[in-house]
Sequence to fold (185 residues):
Amino acid sequence: MSDIKEEHKEFMTDEDFDQDFFKNIERRSNIWKCIQCGTCTASCESGRWTALKTRSIVRKVVLGDLSVLDDPDIWLCTTCYQCYERCPRDVRPTDVIMELRNYATQRGNISPNHRAVVGYLKNTGHGVPINDEIRQRRIELGLEELPPTLFKFKEEGDDEDLKNFEKYMFDLPPVKEKEEETGGE
Fold:
């Protein structure tokens, strides 16, 4: 029993229990119906190639383990919805993971890869950088050097919409600083 407590030492207490967190999770899922059958993990395409164990993530949420917001595994989900479709209890694990990502992002915990994609979108309108080879190929095919984006088709009067889009899409909180290890412990 002590091993379990040590593994989940960041359980929420009454003082730091975040009601909004669970209300949003409950609104998007049926997390309390989870019976830990493992169907989500077994059907996870990403889990075949990564450390992602969907069932463990859902379990941490049910236990109120706040460390799940710092878990890099929540960023491994490809949102293929296999777990969502196959869950016998309609828990909607993908939606749970998306809500966890939202909360993690608010705390400054965002995957470096996801942060990079947001940077590409903000600077170029593309989620993937376009290298010189792709640009040359597009020109050879008679296409524009860069594919069109939202920025190209901006019409007059759309400035407010674009500013709102930028605000909600690109204003990420600063990266959460990791506590530096202190020697001797």
